[in-house]
Specification:
It comes from Ipomoea nil. By secondary structure, the chain is α+β, with helices and mostly antiparallel strands. The protein is built from five helices and two strands.
């Protein structure tokens, strides 16, 4: 299925709870609903098995669709001609979050990360070249 058709379904379930998502996907009239239903169901099973979390506490925190490879084929037509057929694919990413966990745990994890410092090296190099008499390399 194409990325646009999958995005139409993904936009409806982003930020919703696991149980509400399953109800929406079961009743959605689009063909992309069933593969996404299977993906969400599998992601919840993985989360409940690996993190020992309850499925009722799961929320879809991130859902995105990226374009995949395009399968190119040719369909034979009359008088030796052929028409190109392009079948687009997509990559679907679903991230579930357990809302029963304390927010303090996530804050502690964020504090342990190294801070990202802004680099102003380009402005400094430009200043040094003009004020200190530096020359550009002429090649």
């Amino acid at each position: 299925m194409s990325a646009d058709k999958a995005r139409r379904v993904i936009d409806q379930i982003r930020g919703r709870s696991y149980e509400e998502t399953l109800m929406i996907l079961e009743l959605m009239p689009y063909r992309a609903g069933y593969p996404i239903f299977k993906l969400v169901y599998s992601a919840a099973a993985n989360a409940s098995y690996t993190m020992a979390s309850n499925e009722a506490n799961l929320v879809i925190s991130k859902a995105e669709v990226n374009e995949g490879t395009t399968v190119k084929k040719f369909k034979p037509r009359a008088r030796g001609r052929s028409y190109p057929i392009k079948r687009t694919t997509c990559h679907i990413t679903i991230v579930l979050k357990d809302i029963s966990l304390d927010d303090s745990e996530s804050i502690e994890l964020n504090l342990l990360k190294k801070p990202r410092w802004k680099k102003n090296s380009t402005a400094m190099a430009y200043y040094d070249l003009h004020n200190r008499g530096g020359l550009w390399d002429k090649k």
